[in-house]
Amino acid sequence: GQQVMQIPQYQHVQEGEDFTTYCNSSTTLSNIQWYKQRPGGHPVFLIQLVKSGEVKKQKRLTFQFGEAKKNSSLHITATQTTDVGTYFCAGAPGSNYKLTFGKGTLLTVNP
Amino acid sequence: NAGVTQTPKFRVLKTGQSMTLLCAQDMNHEYMYWYRQDPGMGLRLIHYSVGEGTTAKGEVPDGYNVSRLKKQNFLLGLESAAPSQTSVYFCASTGGQGRDTQYFGPGTRLTVL
Description:
Oligomer: heterodimer
Number of helices of chain B: 0
Helix content of chain B: under 10%
Shape of chain B: globular
């Protein structure tokens, strides 16, 4: 079955440092989504990428979808303590009823 | 508009007991999902539904049953709870196509002793 691998599993940074998490799929995806889960909370949708090579920005967050539509990345510039949480990628191959989630990257930020 | 709600928020069971987790959504979504989240394992799909009266197995369905008698509700049942089912359970729903944005409920933290 489809697998979505995400690295790193954990990342600890000093406030102000940059952060990147990577997502790789074993199959070509129709889209890739990113979610954020604050400690003790539930996953919240951040963004969806659909086109090959697509890049989208949300303030300090930059999301990329690979040319082959099998990998993606989330980059945070100048992290803040409010960025703390687990970031998940999720993808679906073709017309599929369900998403496959990566295991997530837990980001902690030292003030 | 409450979005996705889950009841209960917390529950402690003894091995062998049964219980039902309720998920309700008021967004008229067709697709609903049950996930479990364990440390280091991410979100794993238990069962899902593509519409009222339908259910399908996900990645880890053993020990669970589900029902979707009404479009807005998706129930997850544990007939005979086991300690391995200690987890946080999330319900999610999505409109349009199943691969669209998923809206998650607040979760149910279940402990099986």
